[in-house]
Write a structure and sequence with these properties.
By secondary structure, the protein is mostly helical. The protein has 14 helices and four strands. α1 crosses α8 and α2 crosses α3. It is rod-shaped and about 100 Å long.
Length: 318
């Protein structure tokens, strides 16, 4: 008779534990499936998908590059073209329009896209405003129920676990010391052993439920392989120059020097040299930079190519 009582008790405990786990799994799975369904029906705007991967500046620069509004040399420095300086129509989307305005604020000095992305406050305002506008349209990730430490539910859960462990130990000990007789008692002992085994793996089952209903990022899975059409339209050389410009976040480019973040235009000894630079003007700066960029392009084209006739300069030897 003892074996039958043990079997009934252990079976009831296992049913209560796994019933709770099953109800939790059903609730979490329902919330997760609803979220996945909303994500599957999303239609991402190209710049929104790029913004979710923090690539909207590269996409905007690629669009301006394909439109002929800017040039990017082999070092990643950007300089506006005549079309970019033209105060005519601007891109319809706010992100490339904001990047174009940022480049115009620094024109005619060449800068990098990474430097503008990091230091230009007005462009950062445009970027974040676009992100907030688009993120408001995203479905909210479901907040799965979590028991806070120190709450009444957490205390009840701890007490329940302690009682369950004590009952498990007592049932296992009684199962070992008892001597079943007959088919019914042996069957009851088997049911008891099976129930104890299920209770032993209950914590692993609960962790598996949490892992299956919390793992993955469906938004990232949707946009991971998507690329902005403007970036797709670049050739390999243009894409390499764009990546170099995006990675260069720490310096502002002049003619023959790179000025770091903390550089304020003074010499190393602290003397201001602005008064000695009366010969400097913006037109000379832009022309001299184009000569330097043309020489760099000629080196890429190989030996024997005259300076200023390599790829990316708009000139040819023919």
């Amino acid at each position: 008779m003892l074996q039958v009582v043990l079997a009934a008790s252990v079976f009831a405990a296992a049913l209560a534990v796994y019933g709770t786990i099953g109800l939790r799994w059903r609730r979490r799975a329902r919330l997760w499936r609803a979220f996945l369904g909303r994500v599957a029906t999303l239609e991402f705007e190209p710049y929104h998908a790029a913004a979710l991967k923090n690539e909207e500046s590269g996409a905007a620069a690629a669009e301006l590059l394909r439109d002929g509004r800017l040039d990017i040399d082999a070092e990643g420095a950007v300089l506006l073209t005549a079309a970019g300086r033209d105060p005519g129509p601007v891109p319809a989307h706010p992100v490339p329009a904001g990047l174009l305005e940022a480049l115009r604020r620094h024109d005619p000095e060449p800068v990098s896209i990474g430097w503008i992305e990091r230091h230009d406050a007005e462009y950062a305002t445009v970027r974040f405003a676009h992100r907030e506008e688009r993120e408001a349209l995203l479905p909210v990730r479901p907040r799965l129920p979590v028991v806070k430490e120190g709450s009444f539910r957490a205390c009840c859960g701890c007490v329940g676990v302690v009682l369950l462990v004590v009952c498990w130990i007592a049932a296992a000990e009684l199962l070992v010391v008892s001597h079943p007789h007959g088919v019914l008692e042996w069957a009851a002992s088997g049911v008891t052993a099976l129930g104890l085994g299920l209770l032993w793996y209950a914590d692993g089952a609960a962790k598996a439920v949490r892992a299956r209903t919390e793992s993955g990022d469906p938004l990232w899975d949707r946009i991971h392989d998507e690329r902005h059409p403007a970036v797709e339209g670049l050739d390999e050389r243009q894409r390499l120059h764009l990546l170099r410009s995006l990675d260069d976040r720490g310096r502002w480019r002049g003619i023959d020097r790179a000025v770091g973040d903390d550089t304020d235009g003074d010499d190393a000894d602290g003397d201001d040299t602005d008064e000695d630079d009366g010969w400097w003007d913006d037109d000379w700066s832009a022309d001299a930079y184009h000569y330097r960029a043309s020489d760099a392009s000629a080196e890429e084209s190989g030996p024997g190519t005259p300076p200023g006739t390599g790829p990316g300069t708009g000139l040819s030897t023919g």
